[in-house]
Amino acid sequence: MLDVLKQAECLYSPKQIDAAIDAMAEKISSVMADKLPLLLCVMNGGIILTGHLAPKLSFPLHIDYIHATRYREQLTGSDLHWRVSPATSLQGRAVLLLDDIFDEGETLAAIRRWCLEQGAADVYSAVLVDKQHDRKTADIKQADFTALYAEDKYLFGYGMDYKGFWRNAPGIFAASDAHTGS
Ligand SMILES: O=P(O)(O)OC[C@H]1O[C@H](OP(=O)(O)OP(=O)(O)O)[C@H](O)[C@@H]1O
Ligand code: HPA
Prior knowledge:
3-stranded antiparallel sheet; transferase; PRTase_dom; HGPRT; glycosyltransferase
């Protein structure tokens, strides 16, 4: 695992990420400041973004979490497994989903549909990074708020894992071909 980090390419430093989250927080504030929203951290990947973003939002809000997973420590996604539903009622709420990455978009599309079924009034989404390729789901092409864009490589750091490790990596990294088998 030490080699995975050593051989990876750093795409964004913590300083660049912080500036991008600042800019995204301003955009979110301009749309959501008067909505008393419910922020839903999409576990596990959304945890670092939630921790960095929430203190930059200077308006009243609730925070809860939802856990659904599609990759389960693999490098490619499959069917979505639901693990934990939020304890907070979504009825009539403006919900902001927070996740680390919008890759094919299946995860956020499914969680968004579920939130609407639970009676959410509006569902917005914010992601740290959008991976650029043409394999996006038909439902949603991008999140409502996106901090950064990255090339079509396997990413880790700031919430994104490599086989369960390195969510804590100090930046956003692209794994080397040697570690992704490409
Ligand atoms: O846009 P998609 O192709 O659906 O992929 C994005 C999702 O994949 C990752 O979650 P994962 O299933 O790996 O669970 P995790 O958050 O526990 O890592 C990530 O955190 C997003 O939720
Ligand atoms: O590139 C990725 N890295 C980590 N987790 C992910 N989940 C979807 N795509 C990715």
